[in-house]
Specification:
E3 ubiquitin-protein ligase which mediates ubiquitination and subsequent proteasomal degradation of target proteins. Involved in chromosome segregation and cell cycle regulation. May play a role in the acrosome reaction and fertilization. Belongs to the TRIM/RBCC family. It comes from Tursiops truncatus. One of its GO terms (molecular function) is ubiquitin protein ligase activity. The structure is a single chain. The radius of gyration is 46 Å and the shape is flat. A seven-stranded antiparallel beta sheet has the order 21-22-33-24-29-30-31, with no helix packed on it. Strands 23-32-25-26-27-28 form a six-stranded antiparallel beta sheet, with helices on one face. 32% of the residues lie in helices and 21% in strands. Among the domains are: 88 residues, Zinc/RING finger domain, C3HC4 (zinc finger) (Herpes Virus-1, 2-Layer Sandwich); 132 residues, no CATH class; 88 residues, Immunoglobulins (Immunoglobulin-like, Sandwich); 160 residues, SPRY domain (Jelly Rolls, Sandwich). Strand 9 and strand 10 form a beta hairpin. Helix 10 runs antiparallel to helix 11. The protein has 15 helices and 33 strands.
Length: 716
Amino acid sequence: MEGDGSDSLVTIKNIERELICPACKELFTHPLILPCQHSICHKCVKELLLMLDDSFNDVGSDNSNQSSPRLRLPSPSMDKIDRISRPGWKRNSLTPRTTTFPCPGCEHDVDLGERGINGLFRNFTLETIVERYRQAARAATAIMCDLCKPPPQESTKSCMDCSASYCNECFKIYHPWGTVKAQHEYVGPTTNFRPKILMCPEHETERINMYCELCKRPVCHLCKLGGNHSNHRVTTMSSAYKTLKEKLSKDIDYLIGKESQVKSQISELNLLMKETECNGERAKEDAITHFEKLFEILEERKSSVLKAIDASKKLRLDKFQTQMEEYQGLLENNGLVGYAQEVLKETDQSCFVQTAKQLHLRIQKATESLKSFRPAAQTSFEDYVVNTSKQTELLGELSFFSSGVDVPEINEEQSKVYNNALINWHHPEKDKADSYVLEYRKINRDEEMLSWNEIEVCGTSKVISDLESNCNYAFRVRAYKGSICSPCSRELILHTPPAPVFSFLFDEKCGYNNEHLLLNLKRDHVESRAGFNLLLAAERIQVGYYTSLDYIIGDVGITKGKHFWAFRVEPYSYLVKVGVASSDKLQEWLRTPRDTVSPRYEQDSGHDSGSEDTCFDSSQPFTLVTIGMKKFFIPKSPTSNEPENRVLPMPTSIGVFLDYDKGKVGFYDMDHMKCLYERQVDCSHTMYPAFALMGSGGIQLEEPITAKYLEYQETM
């Protein structure tokens, strides 16, 4: 028993994160259920509304405050909260005028409506769990008996009807055997007492006894009779309780059953975190190394540039020094002039001439320099200005290393799914990629996330087989250049057909009219020719003439199982009817002369000739829908007269799904794998794909996707 109590305590402590209010970050106190189904403390809702109200009042004086009011504004005083908590409060300057605020849990705007806080349910279940957690957390603190004389004894149970706690003796005294009080509900010691009956916040005197399936909330019978839920679908509380409890139990059992998988995924996440930590540190070290190399290059270039500047400066200063010394020699009693004055004192003519000739040249040169003074060197160092604009721009664009391989893009128009999936992609730099890896996986919300399947591809398209029917699949591709890999492309989601693809060709024998219909050699394309014979037939009728439908069927019948096939109706087609028909119905159609039969009275003809106004059996041995003039006509429901959009744009490709065992046929838009129309059909006989044409028109059966199909597409 002690072990069980310890496990219970550990379980209670483990759910603490679920018991924290997203607004105040503390344990819930009187939690309320918001319309978004998140819970928040009663007090926190009032604070949020008052804060938002105050922010609207202060918006003129403080426009710089752009953050959330519930995070920035000071808490309102308790006096304000108390005023709006009193029954019958009315709007005034202290009451919140705002009923919309962002939910702290999901950040979506929540509108409380006219009743405001009074329209919210109190989450008693969460409140009980919080109280249980508090008791587990303060197990050493006992709850005392409320009825004992001082000193009170420790309570052993609490009565939910009396809202009081009792010791064993007091409980026996106040709940004597054989009285009504003996039937009261009691629990372990607690300070959390909740009402036994949940009352409607809209009609405070009425019990909650129904559940609105549209609003996902409990309601009373007055809400259903004339309130906001009068037109909503409701169910009994017991039914809702049973359904939700079964779903919750099933989900909990599923999670418990997947405990080993969750643990393995947690271990995998721990390894990924460690790997991320190591890779992050390694990336930092690599970045530091690269920057240090840049620093070394900059230091080397800096030293070289400074040396060049110093050398040029020294050379120029030396030139200036020499020039200055020469000019100083021109001064009297200085240098050259003084020397020349001494030479003039020479009286010996031969000696004077010998010395004066060279001296005269020097004097002439000095005289000329005085006439045209020019410094011996430049003072400007404009040739030594370091130009770093290009390098600065490059350093500003300094970023992480690019693989150099562009991301391939999946071509959504050329990619499709039928019996197999064909994925086609293009690469901006096709020659740069050595190969590609195509990844795909099934998307299934009910099961765990499935891992990606990988296929190495040399070209830019791939056929994938063995896909499950009626499932969503995600596809993506990445390119490889040697060992360098590009990022993955954007994912493409495709939905597989609802059943395996049924292979057949047009039957050239049964009912085929070669005067009106033209069938190609492969028997997968038929064309209706409104030719000379039709004109002759119309010329013989003076009063009026109804053209007939020319039928053609598939060469293989269906006697069981689920099957799907697809085809394209040529855009120029005037009237085409497609669907399924039983063998006996086809014999009736193909034997009856139809030259004078009006399609107006043909059952379920599917076009707006008035045929839908007639009542017919909901389960008949055929179903045909009408397609023509680039429109898809949905037949009128035999059991409903509700107006609906019965004329849709004609899909590029149309699919037919026949569930023989359940007697059901559906028509699909192949581009989105969306069901456009579905109805019951009598499958007591062999069923055939059936087609009918009137006037100009054509039908092309969808070609199965195979490796040969891929080769053909690539040559195209």
